[in-house]
Design a protein that fits this description.
Elements lengths: L3 E12 L2 E12 L3 E5 L6 H8 L7 E6 L2 E3 L4 H6 L2 E4 L11 H5 L9 H18 L15 H14 L4 E5 L7 H16 L3 E5 L3 H7 L2 E6 L2 E7 L5 H9 L19 E9 L6 E6 L3 E5 L6 H8 L7 E6 L2 E3 L4 H6 L2 E4 L3 H5 L6 H6 L7 E2 L2 E2 L1 H14 L16 H14 L4 E5 L7 H16 L3 E5 L3 H7 L2 E6 L2 E7 L5 H8 L4
Parallel strand pairs: 3-8, 3-9, 6-7, 7-8, 13-20, 13-21, 16-19, 19-20
Antiparallel strand pairs: 1-2, 1-4, 4-5, 9-10, 11-12, 11-14, 14-15, 17-18, 21-22
Helix pairs in contact: 13-14, 14-15
């Protein structure tokens, strides 16, 4: 039997009347990468916060290398070798790399001696991880990927034996993910045990040894990664079968009219791009981080200034200089940053859905609140927003339901063209399936969708056709019948 570094048994945790964890458990072996998955609300974060000392369990036991522990705070857990790296990185932007790694744990006596010793230790850590980062650079000037590495270095500097990583690749490009995986595998070889939480199931099959599944606060199963399948994993997560296979052929009708045509559109980031979008089509936009996908979408939506090109709606040229112009043309944009740009999270569902539609609810300068609430109720019902009422504050909804609220407000506006920018980023597989069904419903109603996604399986599952960008240029176009991950990547690195 391999050595168990962590053993959590019969863990229960309640928050008021909510039973967040019910008989949850987890086992982590020495030198293992263990995937931890489940839908939003499954209890993953709560379980890890108990392990890392943020919360204390109401019932159950936590064993570290066979020794029962009761951490009262994160410092006690860290001192005992348990380090958690959150999705929102815990770094001080204005401090240097060395200062961030040893903040609160400075060595030696005297300021100069401390800095000299900490710089030397930092240099050794970075060499160990093969990271080329200047010691004195302010962390805020580093890429998210490099900041992630600094968090890992900080964990190693604490002599951690367990590293918990929560959605570590959420904001990373493909090349950066591979660099992260290299470091994770290196730490595994050195004997560190790692718990890896991610909604990106394909990553789990690439990097983990075993995968533990949770659902509704309960432990479901632990499977050997090499023996499992994607479909099996998804069924364990959501308790039902969900199709995750590639679309075999385009569903667009042969004579479907062109609802949007872009001719030679250009800006400082976009280089002379032209394409068409047909009625009832899902057009995927693929490319690596920085390829220009979001920049292209913002040009079409009038959010950024363009220096050239023509936009046609239903065969006629239209002037789209502002977002108001785009909305008037039946075009809506669902930003990848739904909380920052798509929602007013401290307002209610009703307020958010009504925001772009106030003119429809106003008569002679007076807001018709009953009509507004009836319209919002109908829109929320159409997209199946799960909320106690339309007066619920949006911040309190899950990521998937927040996304549905964004869709509802544009449905109420009667948009014909939807631009979805990373539509399922940060939401679990069950919520993803609901968003996919909603997109398919829009298509059946004759709407058209441009979908930007960094997830290859998503592009291949949903798109009828895929455009690939590289460095602001259109480098490839693939009908879904011929599209593969390999072909997409080939175009994604094809610099003209």
């Amino acid at each position: 039997m391999e050595e168990l570094v962590v053993s959590m048994k019969n863990i229960h945790k309640r928050f008021g009347g909510i039973h967040a964890l019910a008989n949850a458990r987890l086992e982590l072996r020495k030198g293992e990468i263990l995937g931890l998955i489940g839908e939003n609300g499954a209890g993953k974060s709560t379980l890890m916060k108990i392990l890392s000392g943020v919360y204390q369990a109401d019932e159950g036991e936590v064993l570290i290398s066979g020794r029962e522990v009761h951490y009262r705070n994160p410092k006690e857990a860290l001192d005992d070798g348990i380090c958690m790296i959150y999705q929102e990185l815990n770094l001080v932007d204005k401090l240097s790399v060395a200062d961030n790694i040893f903040i609160g744990r400075e060595s030696g006596t005297g300021i100069l001696l401390k800095r000299k010793q900490d710089r030397k230790k930092t240099e050794e850590l970075l060499q160990r991880l093969e990271l080329d980062v200047p010691l004195d650079i302010e962390v805020g000037n580093l890429t998210v990927a490099k900041q992630q590495m600094i968090e890992i270095a900080k964990g190693i500097s604490c002599n951690s034996k367990v590293l918990i990583m929560d959605e570590p690749t959420a904001a990373l490009a493909v090349s950066e993910i591979q660099e992260l995986f290299r470091v994770i595998r290196q730490l595994k070889e050195e004997g560190m045990s790692i718990i890896y939480i991610s909604h990106r199931l394909e990553e789990l099959f690439e990097i983990t040894d075993r995968i533990t599944v949770m659902r509704d606060g309960n432990y479901i199963d632990t499977m050997e990664t090499s023996l499992g399948t994607m479909d099996e994993l998804i069924k364990k997560m959501v308790g039902r079968n969900i199709s995750w296979s590639k679309k075999e052929k385009s569903n667009v009708k042969k004579n479907a009219p062109v609802v949007l045509e872009i001719k030679h559109i250009a800006s400082k980031d976009i280089k002379d791009i032209s394409f068409q979008l047909r009625q009832g089509e899902i057009l995927g936009l693929a490319g690596l981080m920085g390829a220009g996908r979001t920049e292209l979408a913002r040009l079409i939506f009038g959010a950024d200034w363009r220096k050239g090109g023509v936009i046609l709606r239903n065969g006629k040229e239209v002037k789209i200089r502002t977002t108001f112009d785009a909305v008037a043309q039946g075009i809506s944009y669902l930003s990848e940053d739904r909380k920052g740009n798509g929602l007013a999270v401290d307002l209610s569902v009703a307020d958010n859905v009504a925001l772009p539609n106030w003119d429809d609810f106003t008569k002679h300068g007076v807001i018709q609140f009953k009509f507004m609430e009836e319209s919002v109720e109908e829109a929320a019902k159409t997209v199946a927003v799960k909320t106690p009422s339309i007066h619920q504050i949006v911040r309190n909804l899950s990521g998937g339901n927040q996304q549905k609220v964004v869709i509802a407000k544009w449905l109420l506006r009667n948009s014909e063209i939807f631009i979805f920018d990373e539509p399922t980023r940060g939401i679990d597989v069950g919520a993803k399936s609901e968003i996919y069904k909603l997109m398919e419903k829009l298509i059946k109603e004759g709407k058209s969708i441009i979908m930007i996604s960094s997830e290859m399986p998503e592009l291949l599952r949903m798109s009828d056709r895929i455009l690939v960008l590289c460095e602001g240029r259109l480098t490839g176009e693939l009908d879904i019948k011929e599209a593969t991950q390999e072909k997409i990547m080939e175009y994604a690195v094809m610099r003209n």
